[in-house]
Amino acid sequence: MESPFLSILALVAVVLLVVVTGGIGYLTLADWRDRRRRDEEKRTTRSATPKRR
Hints:
Strand content: under 5%
Order of helices and strands: H
Shape: rod-shaped
Helix content: over 70%
């Protein structure tokens, strides 16, 4: 027979694992979006700037 303490501990561990994994996924997605935005900004700034001779 399992102890209720172990069941609660296992449930808390699973919930924490899901929360941490979701947080890492969110941060990765936010970094990817920001990088895309910066690269797009660089391209538009570079193409709008006249070339020097």
